[in-house]
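User: Predict the complex with nicotinamide-adenine-dinucleotide.
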Amino acid sequence: MKKMGSYHITVLKGDGIGPDVVTEAMGVLECVGKKYGHDFVFNEKLAGGCAYDAYGEPLPEETLEACKNSDAILLGAVGGPKWDHLPANLRPEAGALLKLRSSLGLYANLRPAIIHKALSDASPIKPEIIGDSLDILVVRELTGGIYFGERGYREGKHGEEAYDVEAYSEFEIKRIAVQAFEAAMKRNKHVTSIDKANVLESSKLWRRTVTEVAKDYPEVELDHMYVDNAAMQLVRNPKHFDVIVTSNIFGDIISDEASQITGSIGMLPSASLADGAFGMYEPIHGSAPDIAGKDMANPIATILSAAMLLKFSFGLVAESQAIEDAVTKVLDAGYRTPDIYSEGTKKIGTKEMGKRICDAINA
Ligand code: NAD
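Assistant: Here is the predicted structure with nicotinamide-adenine-dinucleotide placed in the model:
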């Protein structure tokens, strides 16, 4: 078949189960490429603890350059006890992940929290609340706010005190709001903006700016919610939400809460997007050193991250959907990795899960 397009993907397998799950996602991308006539060119580089071991730094210049020169990045996970003793700037999480996000301008973090019908009993929420499925998209601002604000120690009224500043510009709020509204237009056209505008000035600007952006999207319903109420509503009435947009720190917490509602950490993908089509795609889970290399890791979160990559960075919507449909088919057929296994289903390993998803794409 004639190749329709050639796409360059930097692959960072990382540490722990990173190589296990990314290998399967690459296999699935190859299947989709073959079926639809695309050439996915993979450039594998080291990032995380493995890069520290090889080069003495978690994000070597060569890796960052390769990322900058590609169309998208597929990442497994980084970190593990072996590197926990290192100073913060050399640790895989801060030294590789945070640096990648800030160097590449990845300001929008998209985290879908989806419950597949076949896995609805995995949710810790009562069935009468959760129903048989759930689909929320959390859009978190990723390069601003308190994690990047001024910080330090000073002499206070009662001795030494520490401070961290939460600051947002209208520009930063506007661009993340646009991402959320654009996403909502492709979904159920409902955005909930989460802030603490009853207390924080930065949240007042957040609310005002999001409300302004909403005027460009008259079809999308916008509501605002204080973060404390949102944390409650997520477990009380999760079906209220379609797209959530929020700041870096609130999004950090709310997106973890949303993912726990689904009950299966090995199933959830994420995308971190820059302006334009460039993005980095990774599962939300960590490097799970306890099961690394044992053919036990669930590769679905990474495979679904590859599906997001096709949709958001390459605009290959049908191809992305083909992966999602294949995952649903395999789950409906009763195949499960150990983390999502329940009695009456068929337990399989990482590699077989990847292969079955490929087979379902080709079926
Ligand atoms: P973790 O997500 O790695 O593991 C938590 C639990 O979930 C473990 O029991 C693990 O076995 C299980 N698990 C995770 N992913 C799974 C999968 N795909 N299939 C089956 N089971 C899975 O979190 P942790 O134990 O807190 O962290 C381990 C290491 O990962 C730490 O060094 C941490 O800093 C790092 N980490 C990295 C990232 C990242 O790279 N984005 C994110 C979180 C944690």
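Residues 18-36 form the longest helix (19 residues).
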